[in-house]
Amino acid sequence: MVFAHLERLFDQPPLQQESAFGLRKLIDSTNESVRALENLNHPETRRRLELSLTDKRVPTFERLIELLEQQSIALDTMSPSKGRGKPVNDPQKLKNLFRIDKGNKPVGNARVHAAAVGGKTGSPTHQCNSTTNQSQVLLATAVVEVKDNHGSLQTCRVLLDTGSQASLITASGANKLGLKRKEVHCQVTGIAASGVATANSMVSIQISSRVETEFTLTINALVLQKVTGDLPTFTCNPSGWKHLSGLRLADPLYYKTQAVDALLGADVLPEILRSNIIRGPKTAPTAQETALGWIVYGPTTTTTESKAVAHFGQFDLNSTLQRFWELEDVSSCRRFTAEEKSCEGHYESTHTRNPDGSYTVRLPFKETAEQVLGKSYESALRRFKQLERRLASNSGLKERYVAFMQDYFSMGHMELVPEEDLEIAP
């Protein structure tokens, strides 16, 4: 009976996919087996369990169950139900739904805090979907002119973010500008201090305003593959925002989803921001004057389907360990080619050791005609005929050539081909 319960306890199938239902099933099955063993009150089993414990402190079973239950509740809360959910179309039921499009962001010599907001980054995400009137948040963007390596001005779209400790630029943006990179090693972290990326280089960029022509600003920006996704993450209609009429906007197309080339952090924003602010209705964003023009940001409403995404970096421990062992593993024995095997056999059969400890080995001359000469017959014949034509047109050169070859023959440096070999095909 004991072994039956133990077999059921330890032979539970592993979870193929993390889910609240799977964890709850695992917890229930484990508890049933453990309680059954406790009810048996088997003294031998209890004694063996006590003897199997070491001096090291290990988590208790109750702690394990508590951890699994907490994970199950978290998954049940965060993961959308599959096959059971129904779309919520009643506006009254959607009043409490809200969206967050914000995070905290980083910089420093060793560690930087940053948040990527909206769009696709390839990192794990949590997102909310909606097709009703929801409060959305516009993030402040601006279009600036940046000087490239040739001194020409290139247009770039930037995100102004007071939550970032450093300024960032995408690798594609740095390549487009042809900027010289300085090697650094800085970890960029985001929400809950989760690892997002590592910046291996930094560039110095000079920004000019399209509005205040005399304004220029030189900043140092860390280079990342991607700074954030396309912004904004939703489509809005600015036609009803009368308080923005007549303003020289830093980003005239702030309401259209577009790529972002760089991020200006709190390290440079004090030099850009101005004090003038224009507020509209509660459902409209706010405008603030800057050296780059008027930026538009803040909550608004939209009736189109949108996504609010919170990004966090998560490193796969299994793949990291696998990569570590692959790098540290001794490479497997490489198979020799036929030529390498022949060289090894030649060495073993011809080498000798001299009294002074040195080795002597016969030179590995190639044996067949093709190995010695290669496939050079056609080339040699073509060059011979070319020489014959040249000698026929120059009698003096021909006489000297014949005399030299005769002298070469008489000295024994060459000999006639035997008649029996004349018919052998080359």
TrEMBL record:
Name assigned to this protein: Peptidase A2 domain-containing protein
InterPro entries named among the record's database cross-references: Aspartic_peptidase_AS (IPR001969)
Listed GO biological process terms: proteolysis
One Pfam entry name: Asp_protease_2
GO molecular function: aspartic-type endopeptidase activity
Annotated PROSITE patterns: ASP_PROTEASE
